[in-house]
Design brief:
This protein has 272 residues and is an alpha/beta fold. 31% of the residues lie in helices and 23% in strands. The longest helix has 23 residues. The protein is globular, with a radius of gyration of 17 Å.
């Protein structure tokens, strides 16, 4: 299963490439779709079946629905694609045992990381996420969800900071495809898109071929405590309205559960 996002794609380093009404978003959509298709090709080359990719980017055309940023006619044949479903909520292949390994494409670093392209965590109202006292970003959240079902993350493509961040969390045997290195939050030294796609395809195939070297599933010790620091008190107040979420400060909430997934779905249900 491929969890995809947009900000870590080669050639993307500005918000106008990730949503809105301008032509740069159309450019970003094509770049994003190209990297997802490259990862699918790598999976198929390694003999993976079925291959399911989920669009995890919430940006959209003005007034449009999020999580639908791919250009459908550019998607690689031989896989299935999940579009229109809120990020980090589609887990059916994990629940049923259909999914044996997770790959990430377009990954970006967590909020506040220096020299990380378009770094952020979840949304503009989220500032920091900690799990049992350890700060993680969106890639860590996906790793925690997958790990709750005993599934490892074996591959990540994105900017160099995101690759380093995830390898530090799940282990050095993670196969990485760094497609750009940030100069600051809005500038990067990037591979040309064809080179980025070739790198992703090759290394995704390598990752799946190295099954014995896959990192262990990332499973924080229970009870799992997720602390979220928001940017404003009203954002914390909104989250605190959800069942099982406790307000711990003006801008902070927490939730405790027996697994990462149980805690996460209280914070981040399928419907906002």
């Amino acid at each position: 299963m491929i969890f995809a996002d947009m900000e870590g794609v080669a050639g993307i380093q500005a918000w106008e490439q990730t949503g809105g009404a301008g032509p740069r978003y159309e450019e970003g959509r094509r770049l994003y779709t190209g990297e997802v298709s490259a990862c699918v090709r790598g999976c198929l080359r390694a003999g993976a079946a079925p291959v399911v990719a989920a669009d995890g980017h919430g940006g959209a055309h003005d007034g449009g629905r999020g999580f639908m940023s791919w250009v459908p006619e550019m998607l690689e044949q031989g896989a299935e694609y999940v579009m229109g479903r809120r990020w980090a909520t589609y887990v059916e292949p994990l629940e049923t045992g259909e999914c044996g390994v997770v790959l990430l494409v377009g990954a970006h670093a967590r909020a506040g990381v220096q020299s990380a392209a378009l770094c952020h965590t979840v949304s503009g109202s989220w500032h920091r996420v900690q799990v049992n006292g350890r700060e993680i970003g969106e890639s860590g959240i996906v790793a925690g969800i997958a790990g709750s079902f005993g599934v490892p993350v074996a591959f990540v493509a994105g900017d160099q900071a995101s690759c380093d961040e995830l390898a530090e969390l799940v282990g050095s045997s993670l196969v990485t495809a760094p497609v750009k290195a940030a100069l600051d939050r809005y500038a990067a030294r990037t591979l040309a898109p064809p080179d980025a796609r070739a790198l992703i395809e090759t290394r995704a195939a390598q990752a799946l071929a190295l099954r014995d070297n896959w990192p262990r599933p990332w499973r924080p010790e229970p009870p799992v405590l997720i602390d979220v620091e928001l940017t404003t008190p009203d954002a914390a107040g909104d989250l605190a309205q959800r069942a099982g979420v406790e307000r711990t400060g003006p801008r902070c909430v927490c939730v405790t559960a027996s697994s990462f997934w149980e805690a996460w779905r209280r914070l981040w249900p399928a419907v906002a």
